[in-house]
Design the sequence.
């Protein structure tokens, strides 16, 4: 019998459930963050789903302001640098870990950045946080590759998730991905082909997109080690996409 090398490309059903009360000591700290520019620089759990379709209004900017969403923001360095360099644009950074997300929000507050908010949230619940057509660009840099076969069910960038992003991003909007893991890069290519709703950017557009984004802390480490970086500069094509069953009710 041939040995399996990859798991099914789907998230466990439990990932889509709403939030339960957390015992994490940082859970309550988000409510203690000082208000910056009329809003909190960090929200957690249920609070991240209260502004769906209204993020520009929450951040005090007019409709049409460019809005970038980073998934897996970690300490927030990329969002912090971009928000500081582009004060006329808006940024949302989603991170699962309470402590690092809170620290990113605290830094945003200390830097006086009014165009940035960190969201401690489960990426699987993205459709409950973001409305279709609300975001101009999604960035996903160096997500956990979950290398072991038994762990691969936790990989974020599966075919269903790309279909979800295809429902959230309108035609022409951007999706930027980087990974250092060759196995995950192959998994991403297969998942993108199965979803069918994203295309590679033309070289000049891709070069301009990458030039505007500084290397992440992980990327600097990988480059020093001489590891290749697998980059996916993509844009939403015109293909009609059906959302996964788990998020169909909120997207249709």
Sequence:
């Amino acid at each position: 019998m041939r040995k399996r090398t990859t798991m099914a490309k789907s998230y466990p059903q439990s990932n889509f459930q709403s939030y339960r009360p957390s015992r994490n000591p940082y859970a309550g700290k988000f409510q203690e963050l000082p208000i910056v520019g009329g809003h909190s620089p960090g929200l957690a759990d249920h609070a991240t789903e209260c502004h769906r379709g209204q993020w520009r209004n929450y951040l005090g900017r007019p409709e049409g302001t460019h809005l970038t969403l980073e998934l897996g923001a970690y300490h927030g360095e990329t969002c912090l640098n971009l928000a500081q360099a582009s004060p006329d644009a808006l940024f949302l950074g989603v991170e699962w870990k309470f402590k690092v997300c809170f620290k990113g929000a605290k830094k945003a507050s200390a830097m006086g950045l009014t165009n940035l908010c960190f969201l401690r949230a489960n990426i699987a619940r993205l459709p409950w946080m973001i409305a279709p057509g609300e975001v101009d660009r999604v960035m996903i840099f160096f997500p956990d590759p979950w290398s072991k076969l038994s762990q691969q069910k936790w990989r974020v960038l599966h075919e269903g998730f790309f279909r979800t992003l295809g429902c959230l991003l309108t035609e022409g909007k951007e999706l930027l991905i980087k990974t250092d893991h060759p196995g995950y890069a192959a998994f991403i290519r297969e998942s993108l082909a199965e979803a069918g709703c994203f295309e590679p950017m033309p070289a000049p557009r891709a070069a301009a997109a990458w030039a505007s984004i500084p290397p992440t802390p992980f990327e600097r480490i990988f480059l020093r080690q001489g590891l290749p970086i697998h980059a996916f500069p993509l844009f939403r094509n015109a293909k009609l996409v059906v959302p996964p069953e788990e998020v169909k009710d909120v997207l249709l």
About this structure: Residues 1-5 have pLDDT under 50 and may be disordered. The beta strands are 42-44, 67-71, 90-95, 116-120, 137-141, 174-179, 198-200, 230-236. The chain has two domains: 28-131, 145-251.
